[in-house]
Amino acid sequence: MAGGGQRPRSPPGGLLGMAAVVVVVAGLVLFPTVRAVPKEEQHSVDLIEKNYVYGDIKHEVNVYVKVFTNSPFLVCMDLARSQEEVIDPKYLWIGPDGKNLEGRTYVNLTETGKLMVMGFKEFMSGAYTCTLSHKIIETTTQEEREMFEAYKFMVYAYREADHTYQVFVRFTTKECELEANSQFFEELKRILNIIISDLTCHIIESSYKCHSVRIPKQGLSHELFVSFQVNPFAPGWEEVCHQVPYDCEDATNMRVQEARDRIGEFFSKQTYALKHEFQTVPTIHYVDNSFSVTHIDSCRPGFGKNDITHKNCASCCVVCDPGTYSPNNEVTCQICARPRDKKYGARSC
Predict the structure, then answer these.
(1) Which phi and psi (to 5°) does residue 248 adopt?
(2) Pick from 290, 168, 295: which is nearest to 227 by CA?
(3) Which residues have CB under 8 Å from 131's CB, separation 6+?
């Protein structure tokens, strides 16, 4: 076995919850892990009967709809009006293209003026306006007056942000010029990729630096400061996404979270191994409690975050407004100096 340690003893199954076989590579202890591919989230397109958004006669109402799902019902009146008697109501819904929505195959229009947009996509974003006409009848004279009220909804497609995890971890080494440092680093990456490969995740943006560290009451030591990202887009991830009947962020985010958890578990077991499995400590070994992780969000092309414009959906990747675009996986939509086509979700300018 590589790493300078003796063949480790099998850990107690009750403590680690794992099988008895243990492998040591370059001072890293590998416990076989029972892997379960995350069950894909069940997606329902059933109508939610009380999922209503009411209009406001004073200002437009912002509504955010996750791509490929149905919008809530947009109600062509405000909440106060909905509690009152309305005589001879008529409803006219106009879509973002300025045309009547009645008869469109992708909308559900009820006789009480409620609108649902089904299977929402980027190009469906924009202003949905409704005009409510109704009559007021004077009690004494029975005189009829027709009233008109206009309601505007700004409806935006959004996606969940894609998650990547930035990991930092440290290892003690004999000296910074040690040739084994780079070999150890490559082996560490290989092991971590094996641990998460069945999740179609992989290690990217990996690097390390060696520093001299003065530790109180222990003197000077040398440590490898290792950083890498856990990314959900390893080769084959698109094929996995084709197996789910909806957008893929939920699936990839579940998988990369599972990958992050496995890697965290792997490093936590290094501490156990150093205390219980080695009589001689390996030349390069894990620094206890040095594992830390933060998550990084990214958006798909055509989407971005804006916590000012879309403060009610600040964590969402919202479709880029007309006149803006996003060509890559950044989190902001860029302003287009000379937009050729003013549309939602532009990926180029």
Answers:
(1) -95, -5
(2) 168
(3) 76, 91, 92, 94, 148, 149, 150, 151
Strand residue runs (E) in the chain:
23-25, 28-30, 52-54, 61-66, 73-75, 87-94, 107-109, 114-117, 126-137, 144-159, 162-173, 202-215, 219-231, 285-286, 292-298, 303-304, 317-319, 324-325, 334-335
Distance CA 26, CA 178 (A): 14
Specify whether the CB–CB gap between 27 and 188 falls below 8 A.
Answer: no
| 256's tokens | 């990369």
Q: Which residues contact 42 (CB under 8 A, 6 or more apart)?
A: none
| Sheet bearing 107-109, strands edge to edge | 52-54, 73-75, 114-117, 107-109
**Which of these, 79, 60, 63, lies nearest to 71 by C-alpha position?**
63
Each residue of 285-312: b (16+ CB within 10 Å) or e? bbbeebbeeeeeebbbbbbbbbeeebee
Record the tokens describing residue 309, joined without a space. Answer: 């414009």
The amino acid at residue 157 is A
pLDDT digits (tens, 9 = 90+) for 312-345: 898 899 999 999 999 988 899 999 887 777 899 9
Q: In 5-53, where does DSSP find H-type helix?
A: 13-16
The encoded tokens of residue 329 equal 């996986």
pLDDT band at 274 (very low <50, low <70, confident <90, very high): confident
- For residue 125, CA distances in Å to 67, 105, 120, 158 come to 10, 16, 8, 10
Q: What is the CA radius of gyration of the chain?
A: 29
Alpha helices in 197-330 (DSSP H): 237-241, 249-276
How far is residue 116's CA from residue 5's CA, in Å, rounded to a whole number?
65
> What pLDDT, on the 0 to 100 scale, is given for residue 193?
96
